[in-house]
Amino acid sequence: MFRNTYDSDNTVFSPQGRLHQVEYALEAVKQGSAAVGLRSKTHAILLALKRSTGELASYQQKMFRIDDHVGIAIAGLTSDARVLSNFMRQQAMSSRMIFNRPVPVNRLVSAIADKAQVNTQEYGRRPYGVGFLVIGQDQSGPHLYEFSPAGNSYEYYAMSIGARSQSAKTYLEKHYKTFDDCSLEDLVRHGLHALRETLQQDKELNINNTSIGILGPAAPHEKGVSGAGSFRILDGEKVEVFLQSMVPKEPTEAPAAPAATDDDVQMEG
Amino acid sequence: MAAYFQAPTAYSRTALPPLAAVSAPQHLVPPSDTSGTIMAITGVGFTVIAGDARRGDAFGAYPQVRFVPTVFRLTDKAVLATNGFASDGNIFIKKVRQRLDWYRHAHAKDMSLHAIALLIQSMLYQRRFCPFYVHNILGGIEDDGSGAVYSFDEVGSYVRETCRAAGSASTMLQPFLDSQIYPKSSQPPTPGSATHLSLARVLALVMDSYKHAADRLSHDQIGDGLEVYIVLSKGTSTQGLNIEGVSEVTSIPGGERIFLLRRSLA
Amino acid sequence: MDHFPTNWGRPRNDTWDPYATYPIHQRPQNHQPKDRFAEGVQHTQQPIVTGTSVLAIKFKDGVMMAADNLASYGSLARFRDIQRLHPVGKYTVLGAGGDMSDFQYIQSILDELIVDELAAADGHTLGPKEIHNYLAEVMYSRRSNMNPLWNSLLVGGYKDGKSFLAYVDLLGTTYTASTLATGYGAYIAQPLLRRAVEGRENELTADEARKILEDSMRVLFYRDARSLDQYQIATITADGVHITESRKLETAWSFAEGIRGYGAQTQ
Q1: Residue A6 gets which letter from DSSP?
Q2: Contact C2 B20 (CB under 8 A)
Q3: Where is this region: Disordered (chain A) (predicted)?
Q4: Which H or E run includes B80?
Q5: Which residues of C belong to the active site?
Q6: Which of A32, A59, B77, C133 could in theory staple to A100 by disulfide, Cβ–Cβ 3.0 to 4.6 A?
Q7: Using CB atoms, which chains have 3+ pairs under 8 A with C?
Q8: What is the 3-state secondary structure (H, E, C) of A91-129?
Q9: Distance (Å, rounded) from C-alpha A91 to C-alpha A84?
Q10: DSSP state of B130
Q11: Domains of chain C
Q12: ipTM associated with this complex
């Protein structure tokens, strides 16, 4: 679909000044199921839609714990994500070992962005085929970053990546001004509403396909969370309460024609 | 008459090592024993792990500080006590904790006690020729709910036991513990729990041991603070724990429980 | 070359055997290093130019430290204007006893560290806790490589409303307390500091803290033959780091006139 003369090598610009391989890598991110991230003054959260390859298969993991104060959600190639998340874990641990401090989140994100950038410039390499939403907490409060295989990283109030993430983004853009003062429950509800926008027509969020990652003090019904609220991933039964809190969608007038289906892509998470 | 055949010491044939060998790099910075005593005892469904908190300095055993923890909570069911060269001990604890973190990343659960014991063995043996000069005692609850104590030497050799003391007062305390915990000293000790001892009795044993060791030993070897961790298996009652200075440090409710008792040995 | 005359030995010395009275495998020469250059490659085996005690205490607004200005060469008072209190970033002071060249090396790696941290320009800074942990790692890894940095260091600081005071030495040994002292200070001054400070960390004013340190420095100057009456005081509080100019101890030696029984005077 993207046949082009200048796309076989990532070290060569096209006459338009574009690096086609890098742009294709960004397409790989869009093939993965959606992930949404948002933050308030006290919390940063991630929500992700998990896929399974079929009735008989389990759901693909979408979130990884990096350290007590950092967690990520991924869209794209899960195998690339594992490599990068292991690198992030090493960085976090070495910071704890050498300085006895949790690694500053922005430096962690910059570190993987730098790694990704190398892959866009050196001959014989390929860019990573995965994008991250990174939430983290440090002295300056909760943070949300997006990492993309182009080697960019930006901080956001709220963001979404992956398949149909534009619909979630539209929702987030409409509501993000209220997020700052949200309670954890309200923030998760907003996140779920945003994530819901990325679903195909006949699908809905359930306890099997939804993951929630939380950083910050526990919600009233959460059990076993340390005082400061280290990163935890909620799956299965634990997301039920949050799913219950969603406000049912009003019947939409004219559902937009679904974009190219992504169900056939099996290796992306 | 035997003395007749012995070489008089003044003509000892053992040559003194030349100075160059004495000051050669391998002897350059000897590890220093920063003193202290640790011990652990396990009963039915519980394990008690204790250590005192006095610390000597690098050159002598002059007590430099009065509160340095030597017992560390690894998970909700495993506690590691270290004794010996303090900086090796600190680094070792950090390394073990990070290995447990990697395990948690890979398997989304805490490592079980016997697996931690094996991990510690291999980590210690990796440094066989430049050892961590640390005695370790690992205590906690096994997957089957039984209490367990594992004791290690510096290079990783380890055994599961019912009780163990290590450090400056160990020669005094181990025979005492043996007499109290292994009912028939003529029989070889069997690994497992001291079935006849209640938690209250074990706690009393531990605190008495430290109190009397502190009375008997010279001031730089034991004293100041005492930290006792009590690990209870799932469902074990807290009877015997309603004493002063006990606080719960369990991180995830619903499983094994950990309590910390702080006392002064002054 | 063995520079120690006591080791040169006499004919009937175990380490010197001119008549080959010992079996070959026990002869001293067999223990000598085989590598021709082995004696040329040396790690620090003893400190050369040394600083003596560093004292530090916590007080109500932060941490205060003191160290004199002397760097000795053996028993010679060689350098008399050396600063042994070194600011590290905006929240921390490092005080050093032991080998001064190793201390200067430590200063340079810490300064580099602070520059790197500053260059990140993201609002994150290294406080005393982080610097102490870093130093402990450095000291421990150097001793593990059989090449220690021959120092006893005190790290004092104040950040985010919290005082920090800790020790680290050539072995990587660390500990923390509300009063700390290195060198002879650990034996002579530490009991004085404890009596004056323990339990009163949150009451002591800066003036009282300064008085306590000054008195202890005076006792050390009277007793420690490698000390000097010129010293500096570092104060670390919410306002940052302040290190005084070199100041002189008020001392009184007139009592020495009355002492009998030492040295040349026998009565």
Answers
A1: T
A2: yes
A3: 247-269
A4: strand B78-84
A5: 44
A6: C133
A7: A, B
A8: HHHHHHHHHCCCCCHHHHHHHHHHHHHHCCCCCCCCCCC
A9: 11
A10: S
A11: 54-248 (3.60.20.10)
A12: 0.84
